[in-house]
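hey so i finally got around to running both of the ones u sent me last week. sorry it took forever, my laptop kept dying halfway thru and i had to restart like 3 times lol. anyway pasting them below in the order u listed, first the sequence line then the C-alpha cell line for each. didnt double check formatting much so if smth looks off just lmk and ill redo it

first one:
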Amino acid sequence: MALMIIELLIVLGALYVGSRYGSLALGAISGIGLAILVFGFGMKPGTPPTDVIYIIIAAVTCAGTLQASGGMDWMIQVAEKMLRKHPDHITFLAPLCTFFLTVLVGTGHVVYTIMPIICDIALKKGIRPERPCAVASVASQVGITCSPIAAAVVAFMTISNSNGYMVTIPQILLVTIPACIIGIFCASLCSYHRGKDLDKDSEFQKRDADPQMHEYMYGSSATTLDKVITRSAKASVYVFLAALLVIVCFAFCQIFHVTKDDESVTLATAMGIPKMNLIIQIIMLTAAALNIMFCKADPKKAVGGAVWQSGMVAVVAIFGIAWLADTFFGNYLEEMKTALSGIVSQYPWSIAFVFFLVSVLINSQGAVVVAMLPLAYSLGIPGPVLLGVLPSVYGYFFIPNYPSDIATVNFDRSGTTVIGKYLLNHSFMMPGLVSVCVSTIVGYLITCVLFPGYFAGFMQ
C-alpha cells in the first residue's frame, strides 16, 4: 500500500507540474512520470490511446482548414449579427453562441474570436460584462461533450464499445446536448443579475472617471462585421457541415437493426460499414482535402491557426496523460476495485465526483475520458450511468488557469470579469458549478428514462 501511494503521488506530481507550465508541458511532463513508473518502479507500461489520437488529428486538420479558408469568420459573423440584434438578452444568447460554435468545430478555443464582441456589446448596452462573459467562457467548454467530433465524445464511444456498451454518437448527443443546454440556461439565469449594475459599481465608476480608461473601454468596437466573406469561405462551411452530416448518418447505421441470414444485425454490419472511429477519420480528412483543393484553404495558414495548434496540444496532452494513467491504474486495477467497489456499486453515479476532480487537475475533458473511463467500466459501472454523468468531465474552471478563462478576463475592458484575490473566488466559479451540476443531474435523469431497467434500480 505504501508503494502504491508513492507511485500515485508521482502521477499527481507530474500532472501538477505539467499544469503549472501549461500547453504542451502537461503531456510531456506526464512522460517523466511514466518513465519513473516504468524504469524506476518496474511497472508494465500501459497502452497509449492511439485510436482517439488519430481521430483528433483528423478532426483538427479539418477544422484548421475551415479556419484557414475564412469559413470560421463567417460562422462568427453570423453569431455576432444575432447578438447585436438582441443585446438585451446577451447573458442568455452569448453562452448559446459559444456553446454551438464548440459543438460544430469540436474545440472551445473559438471563444477567442467572439469573446471581445460579447464584451463590447454588453459594455455598450450598460450590462455588466461579467454576466455574459463568464458564462459564455464556461459554455464554450461545456460544448465539448456535445460535439460529434470532439475527443471526449469520440473517446467515450470508442472505449464504451470496447467494453461491451455499444453506444453511438447520436445516442451520446441525445443525452448530453439537452442536459448541457439546460445547465447553461440555469447558469445564465443565475448570472442575469449577478454583481452590481455598472452605474452602481464604485470600482467601475472610478475607472470610467479616468479619461484614458474611458477611451480604452468605449473608444473602439470589436467586430467581425467589417470582414469580407468570400464564396470560398462560405463553401468551406458547407463542406464542413456536410462532413458532420455524413458522420451522423453513418452513426445512425450503427443503431438500426435488420435481419440478415435469420439473424438481427445492425445496418452497418449488414452493409459492411467500417467502425465509427475509422469513418470519422476518413470523412474529416476528405473534408480537409476538399477545403484545400476547392475552398482556397492555405495549408500553411491552417497549421498556423489557433484551432489546429490548440488541437495538437490536446493530442500531446491526451497522449501523455492517458498513457500515464493507464499505466498506473492498469497495474493497480484489483486494488482500485477493492477500494471503490463498495461505493460505486451502491452509488454508481458517484463516479461523477472522480471525473470532476481529475478534470480539475488535467485541464482536458478528452484526457479525463480516456484515462478514467476504462477504470469506471472495470469497476462494473453500467454504460448508461457513465453516459449520464459525462458532463462531469469538465472541472478545470475550478482553478482559473485555462487559456479561455484567462483570455476572457483580458478581453473584458470593464474589469468586471476577474480572478479573485484568493484564486478560487473568480468569475467562472458560480456559472461553472451551476452548469456542470445541473447538466450532470439532468443527463443522469435522461439516461434513467432512456434505460428504464436502470431507472427501476435507481428507484429501489
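and the second one:
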Amino acid sequence: MAEAVRNLTHQVHVGNVPVGGGAPVSVQSMCTTPTSDPEMTLAQIQRLADEGCEIIRVAIPNAGALDGFEEICRRSPLPVIADIHFDHKLAIEAAKRGAAAFRINPGNIGSWERVDATIDAAGEAGIPIRIGVNAGSLAKEVDERQDLTLPEKLVASSVSFVKHFEDRGFTDIVLSAKAHDVPTTLATYRALSRELPHIPLHVGVTEAGTLRQGTVKNSVGVGILLEEGIGDTIRLSLTAEPEEEVRVAWELLAALGMRRLHPELVSCPTCGRCQVDLIKIANEVEERLQKTKAPISVAVMGCIVNGPGEAKSCDIGIASGKGQGLLFVNGEPLRKVPEDGMVDALFDEIHVRYPEA
C-alpha cells in the first residue's frame, strides 16, 4: 500500500525496528502479564507477534522483575522496551539486561542527576529512550502552572526534556505526550510536531477505555494525526486483551491506506431487500479471514443492487439473493452458489486464487 506523506523525523532503531525517518508506522503494545513470570510473558508476546505487533513493552515495577525481564529479552521474538517509573536505577539495570529501549516518565523519574544517569546507561548500551510524558503524572512544577493549558503543559515538559537530552549529546529519542481525551491529544501532538519536528513521535490516546470506546477514541485521535503526517509509531491503549490493541492498530493503518496486514472486509449495512442473514454471514467471513495473511479485499454484500457494482474494486466477493449468492471477482460475475454454501465457496475461491493466503 502507498505510504502517506509524513513529517520526516530522524530515525532511531528499537532492536531491528526503525522508528522515524520515513520508516513505516510501527505497531506496539504492552504486556499485561507479570514480568517476573517470563514464561507467561513470552507466551503473550508470541501471541502479539502472531497478530502483527512489532515492538513490545513490559513493566519493571521493582528489582524483583529484573531476572524475568532479562530472560524475556533473551528469548523474545520482538524487541522489548522496559517501562520504568520512579526508580531510575531500574532503567540503568534494564539497559544492562538486554532492553532494546526504555521508557521513562519525566513526571516521576526524579532529579536531573537521575535523568543523566539513565541517559548515560542508554548511551553505553546503544539503545534509545522514549520520553513518555503523561497528563496524569506531570511534574509538580509544570502541573501547578496556572498560565498554561494542559496541552501547553505537556509540550513544555516534553521540550524541556528533549532539550536536556540533546544538550548532553543524546539524540536517540522517541517522544510521547499522552492524555485520555482526543482534543488534548490532537492539540499536544500538533504542537510537538511544530516545536520538535525532528523527534520521532509515539502516538496514542492513553486510558482510552474499554474495547468499543477505546477503539473509537484512538481511531479518531491517532487517525487524524497520522492523516496529518504526525506519528512514527503507535500504541492504541485499550482496557482489553493486548491482542485487541494490535488488531485495531492494523485496521486503523489499513483504513488510512498506510499499511495492511490482513484482508479488508467490505460489507453492506443491509436493508429491506436482504433475503439472507447477512450479519451472521459477514461475521463468519470476518472470523475466517483472521487466519488469512494476504492484503486482499473481500466483499460480502446483501443483494444484487449493492453487489458487484458497489464492490467492484474488491478482489473477490459474494452478493446475496434469495436462497443463493453470486460469486464475483474484480466486479465480474463468476458463478452462483446456494445460500448454505456461500461462505465455503467464497473461501475455496480465495484459496485457489490467492494461495499465499
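quick thing i noticed on the 2nd:
The mean pLDDT is 92.
anyway thats it, ttyl
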